[in-house]
Amino acid sequence: MFWKKTLDPESPLEVEEVIECLHARWGASYDMRLLIRDGFLYLQVMWAFLEQQSFPFDEITYKLRIAGVVEVVNRFGQAALVRQWLSSVDQKPRLGKALTLRMKVDQCLLEEFSL
Hints:
Number of helices: 4
Distance between the termini: 29 Å
CATH architecture: 2-Layer Sandwich
């Protein structure tokens, strides 16, 4: 596991923790986004990354985007699943192909939430 600060796998994710994991796994600060579709929450690690010259966001905006993703993941109680997936997914994001984690979440929470 890539996270040095987090001893309890059930603890909430933190922005720096996620960014550190992305760097440790793939050497870049990949963008992330969430989608809700067909009763599932999908976490996507996109192919664009902060270190690219063409990346449309500065570091502060990037961290705010990741913070939004982390907040939702934590609110849905999926921190442990995301930690495990990020530390073990076999693939790497590549141009035109995001990595996607499908998460089953409480339907009532899903209906109250909009992305």
